[in-house]
Amino acid sequence: MERPSLEFNLPDTHEEGKLYVVDSLNNLNKLNVCPAESQHSLDEEETTGGTGGSMAGSNTRNQCLFFITFILTLIITLALVSFVIFLIFQTRNEVDQISSRLLSEKKNIEELKKLNNIILKHLNQSRIKE
C-alpha cells in the first residue's frame, strides 16, 4: 500500500516572478498599442480578474484618498488666503487712521507755531514799549 504524500508541490517562486513580469509587460504593451477607446475594455478585463479586482479597489481607494486630501488642502489654502486678505484690510484701516491722526496733529502743531510767533511778537513789542 502506498501512503499518500504529505508534501505539497509548491511552484517555484522564481517562475511566478517571471510570469508576473511577462504579464506586466503584456499589459504595458496593450496600453501602448491599443487606442484610447479600447482602454475602457482593458480596464473592465482587469477589474473582473481575481487580482485585478483587488488592484482596482485599492486604486479607487487611493484616488478617493487623494481627492479628499486635495479638497482639504484647497480648503486650508482658501482659509489662509482669506485670513491674509483680512489682515491686509485691517492693516490698511489702521494705517489710514494713523495717517489721519498725523495730519490733524500736524495742523495742530502749525497752529501752535503761529500762536507762539504771535506771542513772541507781542512780548517783543511790549519790551520795546517799556
What does this structure look like?
This protein has 130 residues and is an all-alpha fold. 88% of the residues lie in helices and 0% in strands. The chain is built from 3 helices and no strands. Helix 2 crosses helix 3. The chain is rod-shaped and about 125 Å long. 0% of the residues are buried. Keywords: Membrane, Transmembrane, Transmembrane helix. It holds the Pfam family DUF4577. This is LSME1 protein. InterPro entries: DUF4577 (IPR028099).
Largest sheet: none
**Arithmetic mean pLDDT:** 77
Distance between the termini: 152 Å
Low-confidence stretches: 4-8
Output the number of helix runs.
3
Q: What is Rg?
A: 43 Å
Quaternary structure type? single chain
Strand content of the residues, in percent? under 5%
**Topology as H/E string?**
HHH
- Given helix and strand content, the structural type is mainly alpha
Helix content: over 70%
Which geometry do the CA atoms define? rod-shaped
Task: Tell me the number of strands.
Answer: 0
What is the topological layout?
Layout: H1 13-33, H2 36-48, H3 50-129
Protein name: LSME1 protein
Keywords: Membrane, Transmembrane, Transmembrane helix
Transmembrane segments: 64-89
Features of the shown structure:
single chain; 130 residues; mainly alpha; 3 helices; 0% strand; rod-shaped
Summary, kept brief:
The chain has about 130 residues and is an all-alpha fold. It contains three helices and no strands.
